[in-house]
Amino acid sequence: MQSIRSAKIFLALLFFSITSVAILAQGPAKGKFETERDKVRELEAKHNLEVARWSISKRKAYKGGLDRLQEILDTYPNFSRVDEVFYWMGEAHVKLNEPDKAQEFYHKLLKEFPDSEFAKKAKEQLEKLKPNK
Fold first, then answer.
1. In the 3-class helix/strand/coil scheme, how is 51-74 assigned residue by residue?
2. Whether the Cβ atoms of residue 56 and residue 91 lie closer than 8 Å to each other
3. Where are the domains of the chain?
4. Which CATH number does the domain 39-129 belong to among 3.30.70.3490, 1.25.40.10, 1.10.3720.10, 1.10.575.10?
5. Which of 80, 91, 102, 110 has its CA 20 to 30 A from that of 68?
6. Closest to 106 (Cα-Cα) out of 117, 115, 121, 98
7. Confidence (pTM)
8. Is 114 helix (H, G, I), strand (E, B) or coil?
9. How far apart are CA 62 and CA 92, in angstroms?
């Protein structure tokens, strides 16, 4: 009986050491760590983004659009399309004749998402917002 128990302990220790070595051999994670997104919150945020985009571009309801966009940032900052949220916040502030706030969001987009599909548009808008000298 003692030899069976000793064999079980030996096998458990062997398994533990092999798995520990395998885990440690992988090393630390490289690059950005992408967390799994909440599907329901992602869907809600996409809906709010669509409503905000439509409000700003079609209805000229800039403040309402900004409220929707701010709601996304407040309730779901890990939204997969935060870059687009920043872009539309900039657009709404341009329409509200608030160039300083618009620039703030365009700069934030460029800093946090330099490879975004909205980066080029943000740079163009920043160029337009530069004071004439």
1. HHHHHHHHHCCHHHHHHHHHHHHH
2. yes
3. 39-129
4. 1.25.40.10
5. 110
6. 121
7. 0.72
8. coil
9. 5
